[in-house]
Specification:
Elements: H1 3-12, E1 21-25, E2 31-36, H2 37-52, H3 56-102, E3 107-111, E4 114-118, H4 124-170, H5 184-189, H6 193-209, H7 213-224, H8 232-250, H9 257-262, E5 264-265, E6 268-269, H10 284-309, H11 311-330, H12 334-347, H13 354-369, H14 376-387, H15 397-406, H16 413-422, H17 427-432, H18 443-453
Antiparallel strand pairs: 1-2, 3-4, 5-6
């Protein structure tokens, strides 16, 4: 336990083996805040500490993590909002059916899961109005997906603006032409040369942001000295997403020539691009795919540049990849987690921490292990193929337990758990590590954990 956390607990009179959760309600009795008390108490001090760290490396790391958090928010919010909207629609339709149609029926005919109600003609206008109300609610459901999609691209645009400014501030000379002409009035208006440089850089960044989204990545890549559009298939998907956003916002979701031109990259269209005059759709599958693509183009450029800043920057990038991959796995985003793991493994060098290499390989194996779209045979083959990337003969007890759970081999689980607990594996790790996702549903695993931790560990 850190000294700061111990001090916060002492101030609140909380024993070291307990913690507090705060729930704060608004004036309507709804939960306005839910979180740990120590997080709130330490937030001010944390922000002070963060302010002490300056420089490009810190900016890139903060931007990377904030963009990851934003994408995670979209991944998690959409199914909830979609479900709530669906429930609201069903409740409204059910209310209309029960309050008006069922009550005023003359007769009813049931055919499997369909009912036919006969009503007097005089009720037509009343029922017609009620059905129209229900259909409007149903139509409103589709607007939620579109609104989330528009918000997603808008968040990406804001993120890229911050990336441009961060990268440009590290070396303003990359954006200011040595032969650029400056009006004399502007020289007099600027109180300091530094302010004038900031204005010139800002003007240049704004000019980039008026370009297409693909063009922005091309210009950002030039600033970073990195080809950000090397993966042509991903680049086509990215171009199509941004083009689709424009017609959803401004053309009633109808594909026009501008959409067709903007969604082409390197002479070809994305496989999801629609034909001219066809209406585009924003369903759950497309939205999840869009979040994954925009995450990649908002996250990986920062990691590539962070790794160029210094050897420490590369290590921090690998650490972030390990954390991000684990969190994506926790919400079932296996394919996105796999791309993050592959990136981290490509970045890892011999001489770096072997533990980081193990984490990345295990997380990558988990992207197959937890992928429900694979059948058992294919899943097991891909897990073993991934694990074959390194020698596992000299590993610690925690890793040995993780491998057994990946292979769903519980034949020696009691001994493996015993050794892992002795090596320091704790209740939090057993409860939260993604590698134990399926093991937590196994009776023998839970029994062994309970026995060797000396407390109740139930199936989750």
């Amino acid at each position: 336990m850190s000294d700061d956390l111990h001090e916060i607990k002492q101030k609140r009179g909380v024993p070291d083996d307990h913690f507090e959760v705060e729930i704060r309600y608004d004036e309507n009795g709804l939960i306005d805040f839910l979180g740990f008390v120590e997080d709130r108490e330490s937030s001010i001090e944390s922000s002070k500490d963060a302010a002490l760290a300056e420089g490009l490396e810190r900016d890139l790391y903060v931007l990377s993590y904030s963009w990851f958090r934003a994408c995670m928010g979209f991944f998690e919010a959409f199914p909830i909002l979609n479900s709530l909207a669906g429930i609201a629609t069903s409740v409204e339709v059910d209310r209309i059916a029960k309050e008006y149609i069922v009550q005023k029926k003359v007769s009813e005919e049931i055919n499997e899961n369909t009912s036919y109600f006969r009503l007097h003609e005089r009720e037509r206008h009343l029922i017609q109005g009620k059905i129209s109300n229900a259909n409007r609610v149903r139509d409103g459901l589709s607007l939620i997906s579109k609104s989330l999609f528009l918000s997603l691209v808008s968040e990406y645009e804001n993120h890229i603006r911050r990336v441009f400014r961060s990268v440009s501030q590290s070396d303003p000379r990359k954006l200011i032409d040595s032969g650029q002409k400056i009006h004399v009035d502007r020289l007099f208006q600027a109180s300091e040369t530094k302010i004038l440089i900031e204005e010139l850089v800002s003007d240049k960044v704004d000019s980039y942001l008026r370009e297409s989204h693909v063009r922005q990545l091309e210009e950002l890549g030039k600033l970073m000295g990195i080809d950000l559009l090397k993966d042509k298939d991903l680049a086509r998907d990215f171009a199509e997403i941004c083009a689709r956003r424009n017609i959803v916002a401004h053309n009633g979701s109808l594909a026009n020539s501008q959409y067709r031109n903007a969604s082409k990259f390197d002479g070809n269209w994305s496989r999801v691009a629609v034909d001219l005059d066809h209406k585009v759709n924003i369903d759950e599958s497309y939205l999840r795919r869009s979040i994954a693509r925009l995450f990649i183009f908002g996250f990986f450029p920062l990691q590539l540049y962070l790794q160029k800043t210094s050897p420490i920057g590369r290590i921090r990038s690998i650490d972030l990849c390990i954390s991000v991959a684990h969190d994506f796995l926790s919400i079932g985003m296996t394919k996105t987690a796999r791309k993050v793991c592959d990136f981290g493994l490509t970045s890892w060098r011999r001489g770096d921490s072997e533990v980081k290499n193990i984490y990345l390989i295990v997380n990558k194996a988990l992207t197959y292990f937890l992928d429900d779209s694979l059948d058992a045979r294919e899943r097991n083959a891909k897990v073993e193929d991934t694990l074959s990337e390194r020698d596992w003969s000299l590993i610690d007890p925690k890793t040995r337990l993780a491998l057994a759970c990946l292979r769903e081999d519980y034949s020696s689980i009691d001994n493996l758990v015993d050794a892992a607990v002795t090596d320091g594996l704790d209740y939090w790790s057993f409860s939260n590590w993604t590698v134990f996702t399926k093991a937590r549903k196994n009776d023998e695993f839970c029994k062994a954990v309970s026995s060797h931790l000396g407390l109740e560990f139930s199936k989750i």
